[in-house]
From TrEMBL:
InterPro entries: EgtC-like (IPR026869), GATase_2_dom (IPR017932), Ntn_hydrolases_N (IPR029055). The keyword Aminoacyl-tRNA synthetase does not apply. This is Class II glutamine amidotransferase. PANTHER family: GLUTAMINE AMIDOTRANSFERASE, GLUTAMINE AMIDOTRANSFERASE YAFJ-RELATED. Pfam families: GATase_4 (PF13230). It comes from the Bacteria. It comes from Arthrobacter sedimenti. CDD domains: YafJ. Residues 2-257 form the Glutamine amidotransferase type-2 domain. Keywords: Glutamine amidotransferase.
Amino acid sequence: MCRLFGLHAGSRPVRATFWLLDAPDSLSEQSRREPDGAGIGSFDLDGGARVSKRPLAAWEDHAFAREARQLLSTTFLAHVRYASTGAHTMVNTHPFEQDGRLFAHNGAFHGLDRLDARLAELGVAELVQGQTDSERLFALITAESRKAGGNVAEGIVRAVGWVAAELPVLALNIIMTTSTDLWALRYPATHPLYILERDPEAEPAPAAPLDARSHRIHSRSTELSAVRSVLFATEPMNHNPGWRPLSPGELVHVGPDLAVTCAFPFPDQPAHPLTLADLEPSAAASQMS
């Protein structure tokens, strides 16, 4: 199953090294189970999107480690891929960029021919450069956000609502970022997605430095230890008891001031739910924990 990671640190650029490389269950460690590619998305000081990705597992990618230690950003989006749709190529590796936003997806759905027709109808077919269902879903969100005058939340609701009503769906877990905002969705209950609202002032003193101790590592993130942040991940990445699973259908927005708002704009189940038994064996394998 692909792994998602999102981080919002408010207005202060930080490094995400701890979570990407050093946490007990860092994204690099998770990539040992997800072999088909890894990418990191971030934003420069002027708000311009930056994406570094390769069709190579993060744990064996020296560039991933270098960038995880060096990149500064107010928000981060990272993904490790276990492919279900599309070849193991750069163009199919997450995250994707459209209209200055970054996007990654965990899940699967069918009916790509119908979605392609919908994208052509909306005039955004050219946004899709690869073969993945994920990039197509992103293009639909982009199109609907444009129609909504740039309202990204409304774009997500319209796009995911259309897919949930019209196409066979296994899972549509997503994270999308700009330099100032982050959106995350778990839909439906198929795959987990967790949130951690981290406030150093409210945590016991030993937890604040983000120390990670195991038989493998003892590391520390000094930049994140003293600042508030909100994180999303496919699974809890350390032993902080504040991790909680998003409820099925929960759409979360994190604003520039780290205010977290939650909504439940979708039906409990898609109109045409898929199960693992409905997928090809290789695709089904990619969706297992």
